[in-house]
Structure formats: C-alpha cells, structure tokens
Amino acid sequence: IMGKNTNEPILLPSSLSLKFAHGPIRSQYFQNLQNNNPNMTGSRTTTILRIDASVRGGDRSLSRALADKFLEAWRSTNTACRPDNDGDDKDTIFLVRDVGMNPPPFISENFIAAAFTPKENRTVEQQELLQASDELIAEFKRADIVLLTTPMYNYGLPASLKAWFDMVIRVDETFTFDLRRGDRPLAPMDDSGNKTLVLLTSTGEFGFAKGGFNELSNHLVPHIRTMSHLLGMDDVHHIGIEYQEFRDDRHKSSKAEALEGVVELATRMANRRYCSKDRDGKKEVRH
C-alpha cells in the first residue's frame, strides 16, 4: 500500500503464503489497516488495485510494462495538477496483487460448500477455507480502479488469474442470485459498482479484436469482460500489445502504440479525478 509519505507501493501479503505456509490470515487485517491509517479515508482518495498475471517478471513482461507506464503517467499527472502535494502523489492508495508470482488457491468442492453455507452456520474449518477469498474480496472492494495486466496463454486466461476471479466472484459477497430476476438471476452487489477496469494485455499473435481473423480464438478479453460484469465493472478500457511472437516491425509498432495509449488513458483518467476544472478549478495536465 502506498501512503502519503512514500512513492513506492508495498506488495501486499500473498493469500497463498499466508494461508498455507503461515496459518490463517488475520480476518481483521483490512479493518485494522483502515482504522489505523488516515490515508485510507477521505473522499479525494483514489484506490488503485494493480493485479499482475504474467509469470514473467521485470522487463521480461510486456503487460507489466504497460501497467508501469500507466502508473507513471497517473502519478505525474496528479502531482503536476496539485502543487500542494509537493511533488508527491498524496491522493492515491496503491494495492498490488501479483497472482502471476503468487497464485491464489484453486476452488474445491469444500470451498464451494463453505461459500454457500450461511455465515452463522460455518465451521471453523470452513471459515479458514474462505480466508484467502475474504482477503482478495476486501482488496477488490477497496478499489476504485482495477489495473489488470495479463498475457494471453493458449488463447485464454492464465490459470492464476482465473483462480483470482473464482476467489472474488462469490455469492452474497460480490454478486447475488435471485430467480425473481427471470432468466438473468445474477447481478453484482450494490456496493461492487462504480469501479473502472483498465485491462492491459499482451498476445503472441494478432487479429483478436472484433472483426479480426482471430476474433473467435480470443478467449481472454471477452471472458474477462463477462466476469467483470458480475463484479460491477462495466466501465472497461482495454489496451493490448500484439505480434509478440513475430518480433517484427508490426510488433514494435503495436508496442509503441500501446505505450502511448496507456499514457493517454492514465492522463485522461487522472485529469478527470484530480485536475479538471470542475475539481478545485485546476486545469488539465497534458503529456
């Protein structure tokens, strides 16, 4: 988490390591964090949850590079339009969840049984089984913006990213099921809405967009859009790098366009939240 006196995000503890290597996660972790940290409150604060799904780290991951560029533009825009910040982005809380390097647990029959058991009837074992999910849901609910980076693996999601969605999409936690709605009984919880998803992807091939010759092989972006609806994220911005396996001029061009696109998107979003004339009379910042 990044507070007001530091510019670097701190990697949040891994659900997997906490749950299986060090025992149960502290159930009051996020409640205590909010109560003890004044930076977590206030109507001006924006919380960005960054989720990385690539198994490649550092500069070996194109999707991570896109997120780095997005956050760089976000910070510079915010600090430029708010001179009272003394060159520091004091208005943004950053949460970082690296599912590529620290995968969440997969769901199981016992997990499903625990999730569908009313809270008051759950055993201690069921409560512990849901703790990783509880932590991920708490992170997600804090976020105003979800910055999701992922490569395409075998035309779909990395398994670790699908596990994250399976942990977070939980009945009566992030969505509800009601047959009175007719043939579409699923709907996001009221408190899950008003979130923006920034989806940054990398693919080895190309032509996955609507109308492209690989459109029917794209089981990444459409799948994420479908699942994101259940989480109340219908405001989706997607930017991707293509042609990675070809390593030719088309790939270089795609990468350059994507990097330029994330800077433009981050600048526009930060301007809207912090710098537009309807917010304290500040003028927009341009990069």
| Count of discrete alpha- or pi-helical segments spanning 4 or more residues | 9
Low-pLDDT segments, ≥5 res: 1-43, 278-282
Query: Could you state the order of secondary-structure elements as H and E?
Result: HHEHEHHHEHEEEHEH
Beta strand count: 7
Largest sheet: 5 strands, parallel
Tell me, what's the shape? globular
End-to-end C-alpha gap: 26 Å
The helix-and-strand class reads alpha/beta
Average predicted local confidence, pLDDT: 83
Radius of gyration, whole Å? 20 Å
> What share of the residues lie within helices?
25-40%
Sheet with the most strands: spatial strand order: 2-1-3-6-7
Structural features:
287 residues; alpha/beta; two-stranded antiparallel ribbon; 7 strands; disordered N terminus
Topology:
Blueprint: H1 15-21, H2 29-36, E1 46-52, H3 62-81, E2 92-98, H4 109-115, H5 124-129, H6 131-142, E3 145-151, H7 159-168, E4 175-177, E5 186-188, E6 196-202, H8 221-230, E7 235-241, H9 249-275
Parallel strand pairs: 1-2, 1-3, 3-6, 6-7
Antiparallel strand pairs: 4-5
Helix pairs in contact: 1-6, 3-9
